[in-house]
């Protein structure tokens, strides 16, 4: 498994763990409104942790499927951030939309790298 894929899985797990363990701190870090419900951060956290763990333990066709699912989720997240931009602070727009776009780009690169090894 490439260092890109290992790092990507670990990054997703770290972001997810932060959001699950400290949802209010994660919401502040991501620039969400202070009155936002911490349960939303926890739901995001467990999803991203699971995607990161699956990325870390999968290989071959399973890994490609996990990467495709993550790419779809990150793309929809980015679109949702754009759609709800008025509900986010400037920091929130940068970190949430930017983070989703960054994860989508890394996921697409990792998917291309795994396809190239077949």
Notes on the structure:
It is a single chain. The chain has helices spanning 3-21, 23-29, 38-57, 60-83, 90-116. It is mainly alpha-helical. It has one domain. The relative contact order is 0.17. The mean pLDDT is 89.
Characterize this entry briefly.
The chain is mainly alpha-helical.
Write the layout of secondary structure elements.
Layout: H1 3-21, H2 23-29, H3 38-57, H4 60-83, H5 90-116
Helix pairs in contact: 1-2, 1-3, 2-3, 3-4, 4-5
Tags for this entry?
118 residues; mainly alpha; 5 helices; globular
Overall tally of domains: 1
Q: Rg to the nearest angstrom?
A: 14 Å
Largest sheet: none
Total helical segments: 5
Order of helices and strands: HHHHH
β content, as a range? under 5%
Multimeric state? single chain
What is the approximate shape? globular
Which percent range fits the helix content?
over 70%
Uncertain regions: pLDDT < 50 for 5+ in a row?
none
The N- and C-terminal alpha carbons lie at a distance of 13 Å
Structural class: mainly alpha
Number of strands: 0
Q: Indicate the mean pLDDT.
A: 89
